[in-house]
Amino acid sequence: MYVWPCAVVLAQYLWFHRRSLPGKAILEIGAGVSLPGILAAKCGAEVILSDSSELPHCLEVCRQSCQMNNLPQLQVVGLTWGHVSWDLLALPPQDIILASDVFFEPEDFEDILTTIYFLMHKNPKVQLWSTYQVRSADWSLEALLYKWDMKCVHIPLESFDADKEDIAESALPGRHTVEMLVISFAKDSL
């Protein structure tokens, strides 16, 4: 468990929008060490961190990140993409869902979007703020977004000062190609 290049870019996007975060309900999925979620909480958001319920060590890493950053009050829940669970059903409506490098394995893409779709029905105005590292030109979300009635806006990295090889005195994201996406329902309202 370590900080991935995409997490630094997503954290930069959050920092750029920090004045809009206080009081927002934010869920980070696939949180791992939870850099974006921790930053959002430090900026005043009401954050819930999640990682796979099938990987208890990942949930423990989330809890340790909370402790190390003096945020022991943050809720950590186990969510497995594509699975309906009591924890998923119990989540309150969210304003923003954070996802850093969760679009890693193409076979997981639909399970991720199924979970996002369910959460979007709790609040149709929720946005998924996601960064991913381009690993293959053959991987695409477009057909799945269309299937799940979602739209995607690509955010230029230079628009939030993330178009550098190092951000916030970190050597990340380095020379990795990282994309920033904002995903929402295709229709403005249901």
TrEMBL record:
It is found in: Cytoplasm; Nucleus. It is an enzyme of class 2 (transferase). It holds the Pfam family Methyltransf_16. Its EC number is 2.1.1.319. Belongs to the methyltransferase superfamily. METTL23 family. Histone methyltransferase that dimethylates histone H3 at 'Arg-17', forming asymmetric dimethylarginine (H3R17me2a), leading to activate transcription via chromatin remodeling. Maternal factor involved in epigenetic chromatin reprogramming of the paternal genome in the zygote: mediates H3R17me2a, promoting histone H3.3 incorporation in the male pronucleus, leading to TET3 recruitment and subsequent DNA demethylation. This is Histone-arginine methyltransferase METTL23. It comes from Macaca mulatta. The lineage of its organism: Eukaryota, Metazoa, Chordata, Craniata, Vertebrata. The gene is METTL23.
